[in-house]
Amino acid sequence: MGFLPREAGGAGACGGLTGCASPPGPAAAGATSRRLCAGGAPSLSYQQLKDLKKTSVLHIDVRERWEVDRSGKIPASINIPLGELVEALQMDPMEFKERYNQKMPSKSDPVVFSCLAGTRSKQALGFAMSLGFSRVQQYAGGFEDWIKHEPPETK
C-alpha cells in the first residue's frame, strides 16, 4: 500500500489525509485541523471517499457479514466485522492476507472505516487509533449514504 499525497498546508494529526487538512482561508488556524483529526472522528463525505478510493487507501466495512450478504457493499471495500477488528489489526500479516484476501495495513497506511450509518465506524476508528494507526478516517454516512449516490456491489 502506498501513501496518499499530503495536502499543502495543514497535515494535522492525520498525516495529510484528504478531509483532515485545515479549511482554506485566513481564519484557518491549525487548531481546527488538530481538533477534527485528534478528536477521534475525522469523517469523510461521499465525494471525499470516492476520490480516496482512486488511491491506495484500504476501506474496511465493519458491518456484520450477514448485512453485507443481504444488502451488498461499497465497491472495493473489505468486510471485517467490528467484533473481529481489534484481533484482525493485530494479526500476522500472512494470516490477515489469507483471511481477508488483502495486504494487512501498516500503522502508517491510510485506512477508512465504514458501517451502516456511522456508529460502528466511529468505534472502529477509536480501536485503530488506540492500536497506533495514524492515518485512519471514517465515512460516517456509511452504506446508507453511499446507496443514495450509487448502487452497491453485490455478489
Largest sheet data: 4 strands, parallel
The first-to-last residue Cα distance is 25 Å
Major sheet: order of its strands? 2-1-3-4
Total beta strand runs: 4
Number of helices: 7
Beta content comes to 5-15%
Low-pLDDT segments, ≥5 res: 1-41
Helix/strand-derived class?
alpha/beta
Gist of the model:
The chain is an alpha/beta fold.
Topology:
Blueprint: H1 30-38, H2 46-52, E1 58-61, H3 65-71, E2 77-79, H4 82-88, H5 93-100, E3 111-114, H6 119-130, E4 136-139, H7 142-149
Parallel strand pairs: 1-2, 1-3, 3-4
Question: Could you explain how this protein is built, in words?
Answer:
It is a single chain. This protein is α/β, with parallel strands linked by helices and 155 residues long. The protein is 37% helix and 10% strand. The chain has seven helices and four strands. The chain has a four-stranded parallel beta sheet with strand order 2-1-3-4, covered by helices on one side.
Features:
disordered N terminus, 4 strands, alpha/beta, 155 residues, 7 helices, globular, single chain
